[in-house]
Design goal:
By secondary structure, this protein is α/β, with parallel strands linked by helices. It is built from 14 helices and 15 strands. It folds into 2 domains: about 140 residues, Aspartate Aminotransferase, domain 1, CATH 3.90.1150; about 220 residues, Type I PLP-dependent aspartate aminotransferase-like (Major domain) (Aspartate Aminotransferase, domain 2), CATH 3.40.640.
Length: about 450
Amino acid sequence: MASFSSLAATSSSTSTPSFTLPTKTSPGTASLSFPRARESLKSRARMVTVRAEAVDTTISPRVSALRPSKTMAITDQATALRQAGVPVIGLAAGEPDFDTPAVIAEAGMNAIRDGATRYTPNAGTLELRKAICKKLEEENGLSYTPDQVLVSNGAKQCITQAVLAVCSPGDEVLIPAPYWVSYPEMARLAGATPVILPTSISDNYLLRPESLASVINENSRILILCSPSNPTGSVYPKELLEEIAAIVRKHPRLLVLSDEIYEHIIYQPAKHTSFASLPGMWERTLTVNGFSKAFAMTGWRLGYLAAPKHFVAACGKIQSQYTSGASSISQKAGLAALNLGYAGGEAVSTMVKAFQERRDYLVRSFRELPGVKISEPQGAFYLFIDFSSYYGSEVEGFGTIKDSESLCLFLLEKAQVALVPGDAFGDDKGVRISYAAAMSTLQAAMGKIKEAMALLKPPVAV
């Protein structure tokens, strides 16, 4: 049985240099006899082969230790199957199905027409950083100046640079699970050790303060919090964040990276609280946000970091040698996004309403399946569903459902629906479903999933 891990593997091939033998010589040039020409070319070919064999093909241990993103691998596999004529429904990617709002897209096109196509300052244009500061003040109660904001090519780059900037080999990065697939790999790339803190569906996948307190030591450098969460959709209430902050406050080395990229995709009565707004947390919080999710701007690649100046300056150093500033065109579009109004105005609220309707439909539908456990998400556009009661089921013509990966392979084969196994997020009991897809697509997928699951019977009483 193929594994999802193999989907990201790449193949390599070697080629033998080819040579065209001369058939005649040009006037005024020295000539070789045909046998001598052939021997000369053979000698050159042997030299090339020797050089190829002598090349050191080793890869950096840090890079070798990285695991490819399963979400990307599965999405690519679903795309390949569709191109081959297999009608696969992809619910793996975390990408809104909406178009970028027209006013934002128009701002990008105007940027091109107006010639705003040159390099910008490494940290981002001053007008965009000022607008971000205004947004953080009005929506999050956070006070920053433009030199405390760094604009990057997506929130993902912001997080990577933040981890690289503050972590050293031997440091630990504390990551509640289920987690976004990239957090542990970012820690490893920095030479730090990811320390996984399991959470429970009974706690809505929220980190318990006592669990955090039990693992902190002198090597603990960053705690990563994501609210609303990818992959669970859980939202941390302010009271729980205050308890976590009280523990963090006792450890001077411990910083908090607050990933708030899904901030505006939240369902009442849940409310978003920025960790840096809590007493004593501004000085030690690295706040990451961006435009990809709420504004349906994934392809524009635009995110930002807000933090004390010395942290931002360190991240800026990395960026200056890594990518330099973000796209000038994307920054003009981002400025238009921030001018849509509080929390993105009507354009974002329309998308959030659709996401909530889809969530409600899927929650109702999956609760009809025996043995399935669900923590109803309060934000983002994901369901993380516990299918572990089905592990151990035998399926004729397929084999045993052993874990989340084999379950997803089963659903890809039998239902032609692509989902992401929970082991990619640090919790093998679950499977992540993205409902950033049209309702008609979700209804079709749900029908296929129910038909496939009918072939299984939980091996344990539920």
